[in-house]
Amino acid sequence: MTPSTGGPAMENQNPTLYKRAADREITPAELDNNVVDPFDAREIFDLIRNINDPEHPLSLEELNVVEERLCLVNDQQNTIDVTFTPTIPHCSMATLIGLCIRVKLLHALPPRFKVTVKISPGAHVSEAAINKQLADKERVAAALENSHLIKVINECIFAAPPTFSKIIRN
Amino acid sequence: MSSEPQAVPTLKFVQVLKGHRGRAWNVSWHPQGNLLTSCGEDKIIRLWGTEGGAEGKWVEKTTLTDGHERTIREVSWSPCGKYLASSSFDATTAIWDKKSGEYECNATLEGHENEVKSVAWARSGQVLATCSRDKTVWVWEVAEEDEYECAAVLNAHTQDVKKVVWHPNDEILASASYDNTIKMFREDPSDQEWTCVATLASHTSTVWSIAFNKTGTRLASCSDDGTLKIWQVYLPGNQEGISTPDGQPVWKCVSTISGVHTRSVYDVAWCHQTGLIATACGDDIVRIFQETLDSDPNQPTFNLVASSVASHGHTQDVNSVAWHPTVPGLLASASDDGDIRLWQFLDSS
Amino acid sequence: MTAGFSGVLQLTDLDDFITPSQECIKPVVVEKIKSVTGSKIKIQDDGSYVAVTEGGQAQKLQRVDISLNDCLACSGCITSAESVLITQQSQEEMLKVFKANEQLKEAGKESELKLIVVSVAVQPVLSLAVRYELEPQDAFRRLSGYFKSVGADIVLDMTLSEDLSLLECENEFMERFRSKSDGSKPHLPMLTSSCPGWVCYAEKTHGSFVLPYISTTKSPQQIQGTLVKQFLPTIQGHHPGKIYHVSVEPCYDKKLEASRSDFHNEAEDIKDVDCVITSVELEQMFKSQDLRLSEIPPADVDFPWLDGLNCSEQISYKGTLVGHQGTGSGGYADHVMASAAQELFGDSNAELKFKVLRNPDMREATLEKDGKVVLRFAIANGFRNIQNLMQKLKRGKCAYDFVEIMACPSGCLNGGAQVRPEEGTQQKELTSTLEKLYSELPLHSPKLNPLVHEIYTNWLGGAGSDKSSANLHTSYHAVEKMSTALNIKW
């Protein structure tokens, strides 16, 4: 059962916050248009770190839901594997968060990439079911045609990068 | 590359058909083979035909629009070739015909709660089946002109149902599901009740598609688990001594082809002329399998004999494959890259 | 737990795989208490949730309860989760009330005692009669004996409520049909309302479009509820709040019906039917107590109605099981059609035969006058036939005047919570046995029941009075599709 405390009906009201990573350092080679630079983990992480949690005014990075070390890229093989960690093991938002990550990567990456989004092993009670649903491209495609759902996803994806001034911590 | 190109079978690229915007989900041939139909994310059904005779190039002939509000997932021709059914994520199935001279949607089958994933006509043309994420399989009967009545709502599956196909000769319906199983249904003649008569369990993830062989004695299935499986029916009193409880035919998995596909296998097509099996895979490749000559009927061996890897392949997931009904070895495929491609299988002979 | 529901609910709304904690989309109303910052939620060994503040104080968190009525008002699933059903509508709950009453009796606390009333529908009696190889009247008396042995004060048949339901349905139809001639466009076909599975499906799936077609007449269960909680007190002198009313029914859907807010007086917290128990649950109860119905000593079925009405006539069916003309689901189509043929077209000998259409669960009867069809009635059972009917209605191609609709194939005799066939018996065979038993019951006509007239005159202030419509009719509510995207299933 959903536990209830005060305030809005939220499952994890007081999540632990994590420090944001420093901005990526841009190397001279990257600025050089003549050099083809392959995608790396940091780039993938940068794409998804600012996705907002559907329930909190916090980014997935600040909640430690996504981490750079859990973004695996094989540019040669065209594969990207992202693993994410819901804040609590029975988080009902886990599927939606996974969908947001998938959609963000779908929008931002060249179509040659095969993207896999999964839950960190043992991080959720319905891990297998959620992974299966996120891997089903037909279900994802249909979900993206649901106007109610896409509205929420867009709010999460296109939210301005949160800053600490926005977050009031007592 | 072989030094003797004629000595090995090949899948020769014939032509690419461009037109769809966004993902192309499905291709389907008209039963006479003169029309190819495709559909996808752009909510448009495209009809392709040849320019000047059978040998000519394939070009877009007509588009059917405004039938659906969301992605069109599958298109299927009635055996008589007069009706085209299209199933959509908008929860409806549309029936199109050309009675007025142009293709028009003259009936809509409503009732599914959400996305309709597949639609198929039975051989008689009097019955069709649809399936949906709502976990149900529906059987519809043609009641009268442009009137379709629901004859059964089958809720045997516990998850999303991905595909329905009919047995080539008998009124037996097979369905494949996200619940990892394939089920078969038939009507009890005593009370016109459709019931589940077999459950085929062996895949370890979503079964995306299924296809019967020409005689309906075998079924090929493909899955998110990356395998292709061949199932064989054993009738009551079979020579092999396979027990058939309740006098119902039993389907056994007689072959599993694994380690070939590197991602989800989204579609399978069994050619009723050549016996070849084609698969559509999430690794962008179309593959062709052939049963070996010395194959044991109860433990058949299927070999990968050709694929689209060599040239002009799709650049994204392949979603659908369909063998031409009369030209042996002619194959169409549809992909996430939006293209429809035509291929010709060339045997070594 | 799901098996007892009708197929319709299982197909469209009932989700066997979820528990409320996992996927229930019903937004939970949370009491505003001072937000404790910095606290962590921990799961205890017993599964309860505890908030631990930064200071180390632990506060046990409340569980959120989802009731069946919440499920009815929600566009999501109807959960079959045991935890939901168990709260109000279970054998355990019923026996708990029985036991509590027993203890009050022993303690001599007469004033706190409840009057326990059990109303028994005909279909579960037949189901149990077949299960325990008893003659139906005998099974009924033994069932009465069982309930009395565990603490029931009164055991009732439901004939009076069935009669009232049929007659109100008939009046409603006549009114709608007659209004055709004065130019207004009445909602025809009139669709019956006694099957709660069908009503629930209509409210959730077809909403405001179909609801005006549905008869506003309460089902026999809910009319019985009104009689027990409103009329019975005038005889027995009990306050309605002191009556615990159990209804024995062939289907779990009836539990949902009893939970509807329309049948719940919130101010006094009085429900017309407190608990619904079904045939399968009774079979389980007997089994768990190592009982066979055939070994339970019989007892009379009560008939308290006469005391409240100065009825001098003999009630022939008193204390026995009777059947109505037509289907084992109450015979709505037969009754209304025969009455309509007579009243509207003066045809008292019309031979009304419902002939099978596409399948045995779709039947039709017509009345012709001068070669023209003047009345077209149908009986539609099971989801596929309901579905086809809805599609025809939407396309304006439904030519019927009246349709008796039941969610279960073969109707209520084959209700979702009837006793399952024994090993080696087909469901079909069992259903035809039950249909045969029903047709062999003494035939009863609502119009010839003197008690009905007494109820109308002495209690309801006449047929068609405000009191009649308040007590014998109800209303339906379209369920809005939920659009809070956070919980959309995809």
From TrEMBL, chain A:
<comment type="similarity">
    <text>Belongs to the MIP18 family.</text>
</comment>
<dbReference type="InterPro" id="IPR034904">
    <property type="entry name" value="FSCA_dom_sf"/>
</dbReference>
<protein>
    <submittedName>
        <fullName>MIP18 family protein galla-2</fullName>
    </submittedName>
</protein>
<dbReference type="InterPro" id="IPR002744">
    <property type="entry name" value="MIP18-like"/>
</dbReference>
<dbReference type="GO" id="GO:0007059">
    <property type="term" value="P:chromosome segregation"/>
</dbReference>
<dbReference type="Pfam" id="PF01883">
    <property type="entry name" value="FeS_assembly_P"/>
</dbReference>
<dbReference type="InterPro" id="IPR039796">
    <property type="entry name" value="MIP18"/>
</dbReference>
<keyword id="KW-0159">Chromosome partition</keyword>
<dbReference type="GO" id="GO:0097361">
    <property type="term" value="C:cytosolic [4Fe-4S] assembly targeting complex"/>
</dbReference>
<dbReference type="GO" id="GO:0051604">
    <property type="term" value="P:protein maturation"/>
</dbReference>
<feature type="domain" description="MIP18 family-like">
    <location>
        <begin position="43"/>
        <end position="118"/>
    </location>
</feature>
UniProtKB/TrEMBL annotation, chain B:
<dbReference type="GO" id="GO:0016226">
    <property type="term" value="P:iron-sulfur cluster assembly"/>
</dbReference>
<comment type="function">
    <text>Key component of the cytosolic iron-sulfur protein assembly (CIA) complex, a multiprotein complex that mediates the incorporation of iron-sulfur cluster into extramitochondrial Fe/S proteins. As a CIA complex component, interacts specifically with CIAO2A or CIAO2B and MMS19 to assist different branches of iron-sulfur protein assembly, depending of its interactors. The complex CIAO1:CIAO2B:MMS19 binds to and facilitates the assembly of most cytosolic-nuclear Fe/S proteins. CIAO1:CIAO2A specifically matures ACO1 and stabilizes IREB2.</text>
</comment>
<feature type="repeat" description="WD">
    <location>
        <begin position="109"/>
        <end position="150"/>
    </location>
</feature>
<dbReference type="InterPro" id="IPR019775">
    <property type="entry name" value="WD40_repeat_CS"/>
</dbReference>
<keyword id="KW-0677">Repeat</keyword>
<dbReference type="Pfam" id="PF00400">
    <property type="entry name" value="WD40"/>
</dbReference>
<dbReference type="InterPro" id="IPR036322">
    <property type="entry name" value="WD40_repeat_dom_sf"/>
</dbReference>
<feature type="repeat" description="WD">
    <location>
        <begin position="154"/>
        <end position="185"/>
    </location>
</feature>
<protein>
    <recommendedName>
        <fullName>Probable cytosolic iron-sulfur protein assembly protein Ciao1</fullName>
    </recommendedName>
</protein>
<comment type="similarity">
    <text>Belongs to the WD repeat CIA1 family.</text>
</comment>
<dbReference type="GO" id="GO:0097361">
    <property type="term" value="C:cytosolic [4Fe-4S] assembly targeting complex"/>
</dbReference>
<dbReference type="InterPro" id="IPR028608">
    <property type="entry name" value="CIAO1/Cia1"/>
</dbReference>
<dbReference type="InterPro" id="IPR020472">
    <property type="entry name" value="WD40_PAC1"/>
</dbReference>
<dbReference type="InterPro" id="IPR015943">
    <property type="entry name" value="WD40/YVTN_repeat-like_dom_sf"/>
</dbReference>
<feature type="repeat" description="WD">
    <location>
        <begin position="65"/>
        <end position="106"/>
    </location>
</feature>
TrEMBL record, chain C:
<dbReference type="Pfam" id="PF02256">
    <property type="entry name" value="Fe_hyd_SSU"/>
</dbReference>
<feature type="domain" description="Iron hydrogenase small subunit">
    <location>
        <begin position="424"/>
        <end position="480"/>
    </location>
</feature>
<dbReference type="Pfam" id="PF02906">
    <property type="entry name" value="Fe_hyd_lg_C"/>
</dbReference>
<dbReference type="InterPro" id="IPR004108">
    <property type="entry name" value="Fe_hydrogenase_lsu_C"/>
</dbReference>
<keyword id="KW-0004">4Fe-4S</keyword>
<comment type="similarity">
    <text>Belongs to the NARF family.</text>
</comment>
<keyword id="KW-0479">Metal-binding</keyword>
<comment type="function">
    <text>Component of the cytosolic iron-sulfur (Fe/S) protein assembly machinery. Required for maturation of extramitochondrial Fe/S proteins.</text>
</comment>
<dbReference type="InterPro" id="IPR050340">
    <property type="entry name" value="Cytosolic_Fe-S_CAF"/>
</dbReference>
<dbReference type="InterPro" id="IPR009016">
    <property type="entry name" value="Fe_hydrogenase"/>
</dbReference>
<dbReference type="GO" id="GO:0046872">
    <property type="term" value="F:metal ion binding"/>
</dbReference>
<dbReference type="GO" id="GO:0051539">
    <property type="term" value="F:4 iron, 4 sulfur cluster binding"/>
</dbReference>
<protein>
    <submittedName>
        <fullName>Probable cytosolic Fe-S cluster assembly factor GI11683</fullName>
    </submittedName>
</protein>
<keyword id="KW-0411">Iron-sulfur</keyword>
<keyword id="KW-0408">Iron</keyword>
